[in-house]
Amino acid sequence: MKRIDDILIGKVLFVGIGNEMQGDDGAGPYFIKKAANSIKKYSFFNVKETPENYLNKIVSHNPDTVIFVDAVDFNSEAGTFKIFSIEEIVNSSISTHNTSLKMIVNFIKSYKKELKIFLIGIKPKTINFNQCLSIEVKNGIKKLLKIIKG
């Protein structure tokens, strides 16, 4: 299993994905808001629920590593985060935004083949409409931020 330190390579761009109006599906945008205010050595884009609209911005940033942050339903406790490889992103349906992620990965790779791409998935507790982020997901993001800050 990869560690966060293993994927923070070169010029890093974090991309937060999710719908802030659907509870823990807003984990990606919440992470980006918190990180952008406290971590200056990396770049952060909040693409909300339409990452496909930010393809040119992502490519023009010319990162060495792109790390998507999104709510992902995997076998663990709510608020737990896990690093997924590019192969896991492209070859499975791990994200609620999977079609967009596949398209983005393929598009970006067509411009910069050596680009490293990962997904940090945060296990949601609830993704109901008009819900706030759960305390479990907020705590998971707090832990993730602490690790990234070093």
CATH arch. level architecture: 3-Layer(aba) Sandwich
Mean pLDDT: 90
| Major sheet size, sense and barrel closure | 5 strands, mixed
Helix/strand-derived category reads: alpha/beta
According to DSSP, the number of beta strands is 5
Number of helices: 6
Low-confidence residue ranges = none
- How widely separated are the two ends? 19 Å
Order of strands across the main sheet: 2-1-3-5-4
Please, what is the oligomeric state? Answer: single chain
Shape summary = globular
List the helices and strands and how they pair.
Elements: H1 4-7, E1 12-17, H2 27-38, E2 43-48, H3 55-60, E3 65-71, E4 81-84, H4 86-90, H5 98-111, E5 116-122, H6 135-149
Parallel strand pairs: 1-2, 1-3, 3-5
Antiparallel strand pairs: 4-5
Helix pairs in contact: 2-6
